[in-house]
Amino acid sequence: VNIETWLSEATGSFPAGVQQRLAQEYRAHWEESGGGGDVAALFGKPGVVRRRLKRLYFDAQQFQRLQENPNSAAFLFVPLLIALGLGRLGVGLFGIDSGFLAIVSVVVGAGLWLIIWALTRPWPAVRRDSTRIMGHMVVATAMQFPAIGWGNRITNPALGVLLLFAIATLFFNDAKVRRTLALEGQCG
Amino acid sequence: MKPQEQLRMLILAVLERQPEHGYAIAQAIKARSEGLLTAREGTLYPVLHALEAEGQIGSSETEVSGRVRREYRLSEKGLGTLSKLRGDWKRQMTAVGAVLGSEA
């Protein structure tokens, strides 16, 4: 495998700025090592390196999708959350569930939603909107806690795991957005 | 400690002495371990980029003999992390040594 083929397989699927930085570093490394022989023997399989890099950066397709009017995707979740809140209130009003817990559920959801939207407001569009999309999942999960009741031994741990997973995904996704934006020359 | 975490620790330890570029980091790890520790050098850069994004290391481009190279240096945060990792590693080695016993 020559250096161009290796670089194309390992880094070719990433956005231009990410590709440029990686190609520059791998090429310099290869030249320092003498610049000959099988590149895969020096760097390993390009597919393995690509998988490692995918944990750090979005590929070009994913990044393009994020840039193409991501705000509409962020807003898509708002009616769903409103429907969820109204549903909770309805359940409370018809006496199927505690009316008080239904109100707490809506207040928790609305409060979290406002915090996320206010915190992300000054961020660059791609970062702001991708965080808001993930944030809505956190809000939807958090809203279930008061409605289900604090003492439920079966659903509460499962919901807790789901909430932690949603929060971890939100932070992991945001770090990936910031890293990609930094190499694309956009302030993250 | 997982191999990936070991590589992070080794990179930070190499950069503690002086700023280095990627190839020199790989060579330093090989040389200091007398060839015992060799990572596929392609996986070095994802780790370097992750460390940089976390603020453990910084980087800047320098030109040497007409070639542009990216040099990495340890940050204050990285120094603190290295100190913690060293402590963890020593405790692990002491525990394993106590179980294995001494041949001498």
Structure in words:
The complex is a heterodimer of chains A (188) and B (104). With 188 residues, chain A is mostly helical. Chain A is 79% helix and 0% strand. In chain A, helix 6 (70-93) runs antiparallel to helix 7 and helix 6 (70-93) runs parallel beside helix 8 (125-148). Chain A is elongated, with a radius of gyration of 23 Å. The mean pLDDT of chain A is 84. Chain B is an alpha+beta fold. Chain B is 59% helix and 17% strand. Chain B is built from 4 helices and 3 strands, in the order H-E-H-H-E-E-H. Chain B has helices spanning 3-17, 22-32, 44-53, 76-100; strands at residues 20-21, 57-64, 67-74. A 3-stranded antiparallel beta sheet of chain B has the order 1-3-2. In chain B, helix 1 crosses helix 2 and helix 1 (3-17) packs across helix 4 (76-100). Chain B is globular. Classes of the chains: A mainly alpha (188), B alpha+beta (104). The A-B interface holds A 10, 22, 24-26, 28-29, 31-33, 42-46, 48-49, 52-53, 55-56, 175, 178-179, 182 and B 21-24, 26, 40-43, 45-46, 49-50, 53, 67-70.
Q: Order of strands side by side in the largest beta sheet of chain B?
A: 1-3-2
Radius of gyration of chain B: 15 Å
Characterize the biggest β-sheet of chain A.
none
Mean pLDDT of chain A: 84
Largest interface, C-beta closer than 8 angstroms, per-chain residues: A-B, 25 and 18 residues
> What are the low-pLDDT stretches of chain B, counting only 5+ consecutive residues below 50?
none
* Secondary-structure class of chain B: alpha+beta
Q: Helix and strand succession of chain B? A: HEHHEEH
Strand count of chain A: 0
> Helical region count of chain B?
4
The number of strands of chain B is 3
Largest sheet of chain B: 3 strands, antiparallel
Give the N-terminus to C-terminus distance of chain B in angstroms: 26 Å
- Total helices of chain A: the number is 9
Low-confidence stretches of chain A: none
Relative helix content of chain B: 55-70%
Instruction: Provide the helix percentage of chain A.
Output: over 70%
Strand proportion of chain B: 15-25%
